[in-house]
Batch of 2 targets.
Target 1
Amino acid sequence: MSGIRGFRLRAATAVTVACGCMAALSTEASAQQYPDRPVKVVVGFPAGSGADILCRYFVEGLAKVSGATFVVENKPGATGNIGSETVARAKPDGYTLLMGASSNMAGGPNLYKNLTWHPQKDFEVVSTFAQLGFVLTVAANSPAKTVAEFTTLMKAKAGKSTFGFGNTSGLAASSLYAHEAGFQATSVAYKSNPQAVSDVAEGQIDYVFSDALFSMSQEKAGKVRLLAVTTPQRLSSLPDLPTMAQVGLPAVEVAPWWAVFAPLKTPQEILGKLDGWLNTVARQPEAREFLVKQGIEPLPGTPAKTREMLAASLKDWARIVDLAKITPQ
Amino acid sequence: MDEIFQNLATGFGGAFTPVNLGLCLIGCLLGTLIGVLPGIGPIATIAMLLPITYGLSPLGALIMLAGIYYGAQYGGSTTAVLVNLPGESSSVVTCLDGYQMAKKGRAGSALTIAALGSLFAGCVGTLLLAAFAPILAKFAEQFRSPEYFALMLFGLIAAVVLASGSVVKAIAMVVLGLLFGLVGTDVSSGVTRYGFGVPELYDGIDFVPVAVGLFGLAEIMSNLDKREENRDLASKVGSLWPTREETRRAIPAVLRGTVVGSLLGILPGGGAVLSSFAAYTLEKKISKHPEEFGKGAVEGVAAPEAANNAGAQTSFIPLLTLGIPSTPVMAIMVGAMMIQGIAPGTALIKERPDLFWGIVASMWIGNVMLVIINLPLIGLWVKLLHVPYRILFPIILVLCCVGTYSTGNATTLVVMLAIFSVLGYVFVKLGCETAPFLLGFVLGPLMEENLRRSMVISFGDPLIFVQRPISATILAMTFGLVLLIVLPQFRKTREVAF
C-alpha cells in the first residue's frame, strides 16, 4: 500500500515539477516567439494629428524591423489620458503598448487631480524615440531680430504683451519665458498652434512658442521670424537658430519627448526585444531624414535613461503648473 | 486669362499621367465608399493611408488624398437622401429635403441633382482656385477672432430663420444645442465643464454620435412606432432622372449654392460647415414656395450640395496659398505635404508650379470621375430601398454603431449614440426640428472661443467688434436678421409661409 501511495506521491510530485518546468519553458518560449500575433500600439491622440503621424511612422518601422504586425489604435481624449489609462489597465503580455508623450505622461499627473494611472507605478518603460522643440515665433515685421531685443520690446509694453498657446507645452514655454525674462504677459488660448502662429503673423498677438514644423513653413512664406528654440541642443532642421540657453535663458527649456511604454509586469525579455527594435528604427538614416524635415529629432535611448527623463519631466511639470498658475482639474 | 490656361495646361500635363489618373480614381472610389458608410470620415481614412503615400510622388500622393476628401463629400449625400443618415457633417442639410424627396419616390432624381450640382460647383470652385487663389487668400487672412465671432453669431440667428414652424421652438433648439456644445474642457481656462468625472467627456461630445443619433436612428425609431403599412419610408422608386420642372428649379439654386459655398469655403475654420446651412437658408428666403422646404423641395437639395462641394474645393485655397489648414482634413494634408518635403505657403505657387497646378487640375478630373462613378451607381443605391425594413433597419443600426465606435475606438461613443437617438425621438414627438440644435451645437463652442479670444486680445474692450470693418458689416447684417424675425409684418408672412 505504502509503495503504491509512495509511487503516487512521487508521480504527483514529478508531474507538478514537470508542469512547473513546462510553464517556465512556455513563458520563455512565448517571450522568444514574441510577437506571434498582432501587437496593438495605443496612441492617445486623434488619427491624422501631428502626434499620430509621428507614431505611425515608428509603428511602421517596428513592423519592418521585427517582421511582425504592429497596429495603431487611436484612443484620443483628455490630452492623452484616455489612451494611457487603457494601456495601464491592459494585460501585461507585450501585445498592448503605448506611445506616450511627455506632455501627458509627466504633465498628466500634474494637470489632473483624479488620474486612475501613474506613469511610474503602472508602466514599464521601453525607450524614448523622438524629441520635439518649441520655437519662439514673432511677426516678420517685428523690429526685434534677437531674443534680447524682443524682451526689451515686451518690457516696454508694460503689461500689455500677449502670447498665444495651442497646448500646455506651449503655455509652459511662454510662461517660463515671460517669467525668466521678467515681463508681464497675458495668455491667449487657441485650439492649436497653427491658429496662434497665424495670429502672430497678422499682429493680433505678440509671440507664440510653436512646434517647429508649422513655424518653419510660415517663416519660409515670409510671415514670421524665428528667434530661438527651447531644446537643450539646436535643431538639425534649423542649425542657425540659437537655443534659449544660448541667449541667456537656460531655465526656458521645454523639450517634449516620446517614448514607448508597456503595462506594469510585462516580461523583461519582451521589453528588451522592443527596446532593440525601437532603437534600430530611431537610428536609421531615413528615420532621421523623415523627422528632421518636420523639426523633430530622433532620440534613441535606454530604459534606464528614459526612467530618468520621466522623473525629471515630472518635476519640471510640477514647477511649470505652479508658474503658469494652472489649476489641476 | 492666357496665363491661367497656360498654368492649367501645365497642371493637366502633370495630372494626366496613367499613374496619377489611377491614384485619382482610387482616391475617389475610397472617398465615395467612406462617405456612404456613416461615421467613417475622411479624416481617419486619410490618416490611415498616409504611410502608403510615403512611396508615391508628391503630386500623386496629394491627388489621391484630395480625391478621398471630395469623394467623401459625394458619398455622404447618398445616405443622407436614402436613409436620412448624414455621412459627413456637410451633408446634414441634405437630409432635410433629400430624404423627403426620397419618400415621395424621387430618390433617383435627388441623387442625380446632387451629383450634377456638385460637379458644376466643383468645376467652378476649381476655376476660382486657379484664377483668384492669391486674392481670395488675402481676403480670408483678414478673418481673425472678431470676424469669426460675428460670422458664427450670424449663423446662429440664421438657424432660427432656417427652421420651419414655431420661432420659439427654433430658438429653444438653438439654445439647447449651445448647452450641449458647452460640455468639455474650456479652451481659455482649461476648466472641465459638465464632465461628471467621465474622461471621455473632457474633449466635449463628438459630432458623429450626435448627428447620426438625432437624424438617422431617431427617424428609424419613429418609423417603428407606426404600423408596417403606414410607415412613410422611401419605398417608392420613381424615375432616376429629374423632371423638366425639377431641372428648371434646380439650376438657379445650384448657381447660388456655388457662390455661397465658394465664398465660405475659403474661410479657415467653420466655413465649410456653414456653407451648406447658409445656402439652404438663402434658398428658403428667396423661394416662391418656402412652404415646400422640409417637405422635399428640389432647391433644398441642389443648393446645399453645390455649396458643400464648392466649399470643399475652395478650402484648399488657404492651405495652398497661405499654408493655413482651414479644416482638420486640411491639417492632415499639411502633414502629408511636409512628409514629402514640401512647405505649403505663399512660396508654393512660385517654387512648385507643377505641383500647385497639378493638384488644381486633378480636382477637375476627380469631379468628372466622381460623376462617372456615381451616376450608374444611383440605380444600384436606389435598389437598396427595396430591401425589406426588417433587414435594412438592423443593418443600418449595426453600421451606425461600428462607424461611431471607430471614430474614437471607444464604447462611450456608442452609448452617446444611444442617448442622442432617444433624444432625437423625443424631438420628433415634440415637433422640434433637429437642424437648429445641430447648428447651435457646432457653432456655439466656436463662437465662444472666438468671443473670448477677441476680448482677451482687446484687453476687455468690446469695441473691437465694431472697429473692424468686416466684423462690423457682419454684425449689422445679423442685426437686420433679428429685426426680420421680430418685426410684426415679417412674423405674419412667416406664419403664412410655414
Target 2
Amino acid sequence: MNKKEKFQRLLSENEFVFLDGAMGTMLQAKGLETGGVPELLNLEKPEWLTEIHKAYADAGSQIVYANTFGANRYKLAETGKSVSEIIPAAIANAKKCCGESTLVALDIGPIGQLLEPTGSLTFEEAYDIFKEQIEAGKDADLIVFETMTDLYELKAAVLAAKENSDLPVICTMTFEQNMRTFTGCSVSAMALTLEGLGVDAVGVNCSLGPRELEPVIAELSKWTDLPIVVKPNAGLPDPVTNTYDVTPEEFAESAANLVKYGVKLVGGCCGTTPDFIRAVVNRLNGMKYAKQDVKLEAAVCTPAKTVEINQPRIIGERINPTGKKLFKEALKRGDIDYILGQAIEQINAGADILDVNVGLPDIDEKEMMVKTVKALQGVTDLPLQLDSTRPDVLEAALRVYNGKPIVNSVNGEEGSLEAILPLVKKYGAAVVGLTLDEGGIPKTADGRFAIAERILARAEKIGIPKRDVFIDCLTLTASAEQAAVMETVNALHRVKTELGLKTVLGVSNISFGLPNRELVNCNFLQMALTNGLDLPIINPNAALMTGAVRAYKLLANIDENASEFIAAYADSNMTTSVSGSAASAPAQKKGAMDLPSAIANGLKAEGAKITEELLKTHDTMDIVDNMLIPALDKAGAEFEQGKIFLPQLIMAAGVAQAAFEVIKAHMLKSGGETVSKGKVVLATVKGDIHDIGKNIVKVLLENYGFEVIDLGRDVPPETVLEAAVKYEVKLVGLSALMTTTLGAMEDTIKLLHEKNVPCKIVVGGAVLTADYAEKIGADFYAKDAKETVDIAKRVYGN
Amino acid sequence: MAGLEKINRSEAFRYMGVSGVPDENLSAAADECEVRLLSAAAPKFCWTYAEISGFAADGITLKGHRLTLRGKDIAEHLSGCFGVVLLCATLGNGTDKLLRTVQAEDMAKALVCDAMASAAVEQVCDSAEEEIKKRFTDKFMTWRFSPGYGDFPLDTQKNFLAAANAEKLIGLCVSSGGILTPTKSVTAVIGISETPVEAKKRGCGSCKMREKCLFRKTGGHCGE
C-alpha cells in the first residue's frame, strides 16, 4: 500500500481523523526562547520532541506534524544547519514514538518573506525553497502546508510537492474574522485554486479560536467537496502574559459544532496541548462525519476576487496586439505600464475578466507573458484569461498565475487536445474549447456541436470537471458569410442547453467590413445573450457593448432590482475613465483653455483634448517644443521656488504625459518616428522595492521627450548593465531608498565602470547625499526628479 | 482591531513637502485617495511585553527572548526602563496593491496616496499605544523608537518580528533587503518605566533625513 492509499484508508475507516495540537506552545513550556529557532531542537533536544509527539499520539492524534514548520533555508540561514540535516531528524523523532497507525506529516509553514509583488521573493525562488524541504522530507507519510496566508506562496508549495513527491497533500490557510487572509485571499479562492491543483484535503488553521472560525468553515463547505481540515487556536494570546483564553472543554464543544459543515480532520494550533486533543476526541466520539452534498458551479478567481459564471460576465479583449500599432510598439519596448493602463481602463469600464494575449512574432512571447501576468496581478483583482496559440507560453503563464484562470484555448484537433488539456488539468484552470478541428470550422451548428461534445468528452476523460469547460462556437464575419451567423447562434444554444456547458464568444468580428459596426455588434451580442452566452469577449470601453450586457442582465431579471444597472448609469455618464481623471479634477473651466493652462491646472482630459485639436493645425515638434516643454519648465521653476509642491509638479507632468500619448498615437498613425530626445535606463537597485521615486523621475523624463527604459525595482546589477549596453544609452539612473540597499547601488556602478560602459550615472533616493554619490562613483547626484531632468538634458546636450 | 476612520491629512501633506493651504486639485486628489486607502487598508498591530534582563556592552537583552537591542541610541532611549513593548503595525498587503494600481493610473495621485498611507500607519501606532497604555496604567512610557533610528540597526528587523510573532499575528515580514513588507508598516520599541521618562523630544538628532528634510528646513520638527 502506498502512502496515498494509506492516507485515504485513514480517512475512509474513521468518522474523523484527529491531528495534533500546538508544537511551539509545548516547546516554550519546555524552555524554548521566544524568537528562537524551534527546528534546531530536533538535533539539540530530540527527547523533547519524542515526548511531545508521544503525548499527542497518546491523546488520540492519528496524524502528528513533525517539528519542521520553519525548516526552510531562509529561516535556518543563521543557524549553521541545513534543511537536509533538520528535516530527516525531525521526521525520525516523530516516527520513533508513534506506532504504524499514526502518520507523520512533513509540516511546512510560510517561508517568512513576502512574495512578489509586495515582497521581493519571486515565485520561482519560493518554489525552489519548498522543493528543498519536500525532497528532505521524503520519509514522511504526507505533506502539510499550514498557516499560509498567501495563495501565491501556497501555489508554489503545492506545485513543488506535486512535482517532486507522491505524498498526499493537506493545505490549511489562516483566516481573519473578515473571512480573508492577511494578503486578502478569500475562502472561495483558496478552495477553487487548491481543488484545481489536486490537493487531498483543505481547511483552516491558526489565527482564531474554533468558535470564531465557524463562518469561515461554513463558507468553505460551499466551495469544496474535499475533506475539510480545521486546526484552530486556543483563542488569542495575551500580549503581556502570553497565555490563551479557551479551555479544552470549550475548544472541544466548538469543534463539535463545526462537524455539521463536513469537517473531517480536526486538531489544534497555537495554545493547544494534548489535553485539547483528548477533549476533542472524547467529544466527537459517537458523532458522524457529515459529508456535504455540494454542487460546485463554474467559477474563476484571483485571491481577492471570485467570478462565478452564473450570469453573463464580460471578458475584456483589449490586451492583445492584433491590429494595434501602439500596443505592438509597447510590447517591443517591453513597456508594461502601457499594458497596465489598458487593464485599468477595461476594469473601470466594467470588465469582469481580462483576456491576455501578448503574441508578437519578434518578441519572446513566453518571457513577456510571464512578465505581463505577474504585473497584472500586482494591480488588478480580476481573473485573467490566458491567451496564446503556444502550449509552452500557456504553461508558463499557468504556473505563475495566482488563482484559477481560463485557458484560451483548446480546439477539436488531436494535437491541440493532447497538448492543452493536460496543462489545464495539472494547473486546475478552466478552458475555452473552440469548435473547430482538422477539417476547419464546420459550416453547420450540428458540426460545431459535435466538436464541442468531443472536447468535453476528452476533458472529462483526463479528470477536468465539466463545469470548467467553456465552449466558443466561433463568430464568422457577417459580410462574408451571412448565412453562418445563425449557425453560430444555434450551436451556442445547443451547447448551452443540451450539453449544459458555459459558452464564450468573441463578438466584434461579426461586423468586420460593414458600416456602423457597433450597431451590428450590439445586436449580435443581444442575440447571443438571449441564446445562452455566458462570456462575451468584447471591448468593454465601447460603452454600448458593455451597456448591452448590463441591459440584458436587467431585462433577464438577473440584475436584481436593477441595482448594478443603476449603479453604472445613475450619474448618466455612460462610462467613467480614470485616465480622464474626471473623478478628482475640479469642474472643468470652459472657454479659453490652452495647453499650458491645462498643464498648470493639472487637467489631464482637457490636455489630451486640446492636443488632439492642436494636431490638426500644428506640427508635432512645434507642440512639444513651444507649448509642452515651456509649460513644464514653468512648473519646474515654480517648484524650485517653492510656489508649488511635488504633487502639483507631478500633476502638471501627468497632463503633459496625456498630451504626449496623443502625439505618439498621431505620429504612429501617420507613419512617423516617435519623439525621442535620447534613451535613459532607470532602475531601483537590487534589494530595494520602493520605486515611487524612480517612477516620478520616469514621468518627468518622458515629458521632456526622453525615452525611458524602466527596469523596475529590485534590479540586479547585471540587468542594468545588459540594458545600458543593449539600448546604447548615455545615461543610467539608479534609485535606492534604504541605507541597506546603498551597497547594491555601489555594486551596480562598479559593474558599469568595470565593463567600460560609455554612459553617465545619476543617482538619487531619500538617504543619498551628494558626498555619498561621489564616493560610490556616480557622475551625478540628483536631489529630486526635476534635477534628474536637468542632468539628462545636459548629458544629451539639449 | 486598529480601526482607521480618517487619515491625518496635515501630516500627509507634510510628508509631501506641501506647506500652506493645499490647492483645489490637491485637496480633490486627497479626497479620492483617502476613500480608496481606507477601503484598501487592513490596519493591524500586535505587541508583546518583555522584561529587560540586562544592559550589556553589546546591547540590551530581554528575558525569555533571543532578541538583543543593539546600539547606544536605543540604550539611551531605554535608560531607566525595566521593560519594553515591542510594537509592530501594518496597513496590510491591500495598501501595497492600491499603491501599485494608483501608480499605474496617475503618479501625482500615487504620491498623495503614498504619503497618506505613511500618515495612516503612524495613526495605527498611535491607537496601539492607547491600548498599551491601558495595560500599564501606573507606569510611564517612552516614545516609539524604531530600528534604523540613530545607530539602532535595521538588521534588527528579522529578530524583532520573530520576537513579536508578527508574521503569524499580523502578516508582517522583512525582505532580504531589510525592508518591511507590507511596505506601509512600522516596528518600534517603547520603554516602560516606573518613573517619569525624561521628556526627550522625538527629534532630528537621531534622524537620518535631517540634512535633507524639507520640513526641518522650514523650521519644523517631528513629534508632539
